[in-house]
Structures are given as structure tokens and as C-alpha cells.
Design a protein that fits this description.
The chain has about 375 residues and is an all-alpha fold. Helix content is about 85%, strand content about 0%. The protein is built from 15 helices and no strands. Helix 1 (about 5-30) packs antiparallel against helix 4 (about 85-105). It starts with 6 loop residues before the first helix and ends in a 5-residue tail after the last helix.
């Protein structure tokens, strides 16, 4: 029965636990008040890693080690932990723990006939759920701040791509850097009004959805607790678990109504309450700020005595750096692959600017447009 667990899955589990353990140890040194908690979590993750390591050796005769590739992953995650605020990282870890117990739940069905192994995996899943609860408690009251930062990053990223693409396209046909800079600045100011209006209306709708979903869970917990398990099962299946694995996971927490309802909120409710006015203001301000790396170099062109093309290259480089950093923050706040998101942001910047510059160049060649 054990040999039905894919070797790759066991390796992934081992690596994830080693990375988590390393991050917790790093955060222990970074945090002044939560060191003891991180130390305890690190030791627990070490125990989980040892379990997956032993299981792999017993099942496949392979001794898992911390190789160069894994060391680089650890180093990358420590770098992220270093440059991001502690609250950001705790949010990232909370989302990571959720992903961990969802993945572990997939093998419960495979090992259910092996009582000893089943109980051990079940305990690890319960540990990971407890970890998520710990992190949720740590950032209780900080969710609104995190949401505000997400709005800021959204506004900045959108502006970064839109305004940079515009000024690079104009730079291919306009010889005056100052004119390009002014056009970009005007576009940024105009785009701000559109962004703030959209952000305000979107956040109001988000609040309505969140409040309705939370109220529904409260009512079900009081009147029909069995409906909570049904909804949780449905949410888990939507997250990729099969029906049997979802039921086995629910079985680990079904006797605790509070954990059951919190788990349902964590998995099923995507929205979080926000202040629409703050969202609109934050998005608008950072939309303008996001345009600065693309626009400012064109205003500095005259003192520097450089051409529009040279300034355009400088603007692309500066914007790519900002896009890479915002990609890291977006990944951390959203719980997605940080490296992929950062590189994706840079590629979007390069792709958008290349396309608009090409269009402007073709217009200059075939239509004779040049200012």
C-alpha cells in the first residue's frame, strides 16, 4: 500500500517541510516577540520531514538529502523573508500551510488500510491545520492592512505596464523626450480617475459577498452543523481533492465545530472585508507612483543630454526592477510561486514595451509619422 504513494510526492513533501523549517528558524531570529512560536513550529516541521524521509527510505530504499537545488530554494525563501515585513511572511506561511494539508490529504485514501501510517499522516495534517490557525491569530487585525497593500501593488503594477508601454511607443516616433514625458504624465493622471472608480465599485461588491458568506456559515454552525461538513467537502473537492480524500480530511476536524467553521472560511471564502474609500484612494495614489519609473527619466533627458531611445531603455530597466520587486510582494501576499510571479511581471513589461515600440517604428517607416 505504501508503494502506491508516488516517489515524487514524497520528495516534494520532504523538501516542503525542510524549506518551512528553515524559514521558521530564520524568522525566529528576525522576530523579537514570536521567536518561541517559530522555534516550536520549526521543530514540528523537522519531525514531519524526518517522517517523510524515513517513509521514502522504507518504501523505495532511497535516502533523501538536502542537495544543492534544495539549498538554493531555501536561500531564495530566506531572501524573501529578509526583504518582506514579518506580517507579509506570516500571511505567506499561512497560505502555505493550507496548501500543505490539502496536498497531504490526497494520500489519506491510499494509506487508509495501514492503520499506523494513516494515523501518522492524519496527525501531520492536523498539525498543519493548527499551524494555519496560529498564523491566522498572528495576523488577526492585520488583514485590512494586507488588503490595502494588495490594492497598492495592483494600482502600481497596472500603471507600470500601461504607462511604460505608452511612453515607449511614443518614444519611437517622438524625438523630444520632454514631450513623451508630458504625454505619459497626462495619461497617468487621467488613468487614475478610471482606476479609483473601478476599485471603489469592486470593493463594495466584495464586501457584500464576504458578509453574506460569513453570515451563512454562522447560521449553519448554529442550526445545521452537518451543512458545514457538506460545504467544506464541496470546497475541498473544488481545490483538487477527490471525494474520499476530502471526507478523510474532514474526519480529522469534524468534532471541533470552531475549527470546522474556520476551515470553511479559510478555504471557501475568497473575499475579505475592505473599506471602499481607502481602496480607491490607495489604488489611485499608487497608480500615479507606478508611472514614475516610466515617466521621470524622460524629464531628466534634457539635463543629461540623451535621446528618447536612450531614455526609453533607462525607463524599461527601472520599470523592470520595480516590476520584479512588486512581483515578489504579490507572490508573498497571494501565496503563489514568488519567483514565477516576479519573472512574469518582468516578461510582461518587456513584452508590452517591445510590442508598442514595434508598432511605433512601423508607423514611422510605413506612414512617415515622426514628431
Amino acid at each position: 500500500m505504501r508503494d502506491q504513494i508516488p516517489l515524487k510526492l514524497l520528495k516534494d513533501f520532504f523538501e516542503d517541510e525542510i524549506i518551512a523549517m528553515s524559514i521558521y528558524k530564520f524568522l525566529k531570529r528576525k522576530s523579537r516577540t514570536k521567536g518561541e512560536i517559530f522555534d516550536k513550529l520549526a521543530e514540528m516541521e523537522r519531525g514531519h520531514a524526518d517522517f517523510w524521509k524515513d517513509l521514502t527510505e522504507k518504501t523505495y530504499g532511497i535516502k533523501l538529502k538536502v542537495g544543492l537545488k534544495l539549498k538554493l530554494k531555501i536561500l531564495w525563501n530566506k531572501f524573501i523573508a529578509l526583504i518582506t515585513p514579518l506580517t507579509f511572511m506570516i500571511n505567506y506561511l499561512e497560505l502555505g500551510e493550507r496548501g500543505a494539508y490539502l496536498e497531504y490529504s490526497k494520500i489519506l485514501e491510499i494509506v487508509k488500510s495501514d492503520a499506523e501510517l494513516y494515523d501518522k499522516v492524519k496527525q501531520i495534517i492536523y498539525d498543519e491545520i493548527e499551524h494555519e490557525v496560529v498564523f491566522m491569530d498572528m495576523i488577526l487585525g492585520e488583514k485590512s492592512k494586507l488588503a490595502k497593500i494588495k490594492d497598492a501593488i495592483y494600482g502600481m503594477t497596472d500603471s507600470l505596464v500601461e504607462i511604460l508601454a505608452l511612453v515607449i511607443g511614443l518614444a519611437s516616433v517622438i524625438t523630444s523626450p520632454l514631450t513623451v514625458g508630458l504625454a505619459g504624465l497626462i495619461s497617468a493622471v487621467g488613468g487614475t480617475f478610471s482606476m479609483t472608480s473601478g476599485a471603489y465599485l469592486s470593493s463594495k461588491s466584495q464586501n457584500d459577498l464576504y458578509e453574506g458568506a460569513v453570515e451563512e456559515i454562522k447560521i449553519k454552525r448554529i442550526l445545521a452543523e452537518n451543512l458545514l461538513t457538506r460545504d467544506l467537502e464541496k470546497a475541498l473537492i473544488e481545490r483538487g481533492l477527490n471525494k474520499e480524500s476530502a471526507r478523510l480530511l474532514i474526519d480529522t476536524v469534524k468534532d471541533d465545530a470552531e475549527i470546522l467553521s474556520n476551515l470553511l472560511k479559510s478555504i471557501a471564502i475568497e473575499e475579505t472585508p475592505v473599506n471602499p474609500k481607502e481602496v480607491a484612494t490607495t489604488t489611485g495614489i499608487y497608480y500615479v507612483l507606478g508611472a514614475l519609473p516610466a515617466v521621470v527619466p524622460f524629464f531628466l533627458a534634457a539635463p543629461l543630454g540623451v535621446t528618447s531611445v536612450t531614455v526609453a531603455i533607462i525607463a524599461v530597466v527601472l520599470s523592470s526592477i520595480v516590476a520584479f520587486l512588486t512581483g515578489i510582494f504579490t507572490g508573498v501576499l497571494s501565496g503563489i510561486d514568488v519567483k514565477r510571479k516576479a519573472l512574469e511581471n518582468v516578461l510582461i513589461i518587456i513584452g508590452a514595451t517591445a510590442a508598442t515600440y514595434l508598432i511605433g517604428t512601423l508607423a514611422k517607416i510605413f506612414l512617415g509619422i515622426e514628431i
